[in-house]
Design brief:
Chain lengths: 113, 116
């Protein structure tokens, strides 16, 4: 299984600020995903981070609010922009290859005051 | 569209006993994958077990086994010999085929509590 490092593990941020979350994998992976888990809820896919091209966003998520970078096959970042208390969630990156198991990073617990 | 249903918001089990967590799914894909993840209070998502739709045998990983009944579209997780450390949230998830091959659709989860 891939070793996935996600930083920061948790943060408390002020309203109106932005936070960038990093996801580093120990091997090249085809696809990287970003999920959000709001308090007491299940996981919802935000976007697919595509290497060398713009991320593919799911319905309800936009690039201006959640810009994503994928400079190479082992690294991606998700930025949560202009934060409000409604953005308080766990954010998780996920990686995988075709027809293989999908693994998650340890998650980032974000609280917005 | 894919859908995962977990009908048990919470389950209780005595330590050392077995427990079954239910999961049913709905998809029009012929090829798909089913996953179970464990989420302790720390928030990380821990991969437990995977079953491919064309796998003829039920998947097993240590104390975890997946009771896969394709005709009934169910993929229940069985945990044998429960331990106190098994107390956590458990999510069933599905991955489709084609363009959605990597995307996971999650159920709402089941909170498992193991009593001593």
């Amino acid at each position: 299984s891939a070793v996935i490092s996600q930083k920061p593990s948790r943060d408390i941020c002020q309203r109106g600020t932005s936070l960038t979350i990093q996801c580093q994998v120990d091997s090249q992976v085809t696809m990287m995903f970003w999920y959000r888990q709001q308090p007491g809820q299940s996981l919802t896919l935000i976007a697919t981070a595509n290497q060398g091209s713009e991320a593919t966003y799911e319905s309800g998520f936009v690039i201006d609010k959640f810009p994503i970078s994928r400079p190479n096959l082992t690294f991606s970042t998700l930025t949560v922009s202009n934060m409000s208390p409604e953005d308080s969630s766990i954010y998780l990156c996920s990686v995988g290859r075709a027809n293989e198991k999908l693994f998650f990073g340890s998650g980032t617990q974000l609280s917005v005051l | 569209a894919q859908k995962i249903t977990q009908t048990q918001p919470g389950m209780f089990v005595q330590e050392k006993e077995a427990v079954t967590l239910d999961c049913t799914y709905d998809t029009s894909d012929q090829s798909y994958g089913l996953f179970w993840y464990k989420q302790p209070s720390s928030g990380e998502m821990i991969f437990l077990i995977y079953q491919g739709s064309y796998d003829e045998q039920n998947a097993t990983e240590g104390r975890y086994s997946l009771n896969f009944q394709k005709a009934r579209k169910s993929a229940n997780l069985v945990i044998s010999a429960s331990q106190l450390g098994d107390s956590a949230m458990y999510f069933c998830a599905m991955r489709g085929s084609g363009g959605s091959n990597y995307k996971l659709t999650f159920g709402k989860g089941t909170l498992l509590t193991v009593n001593p």
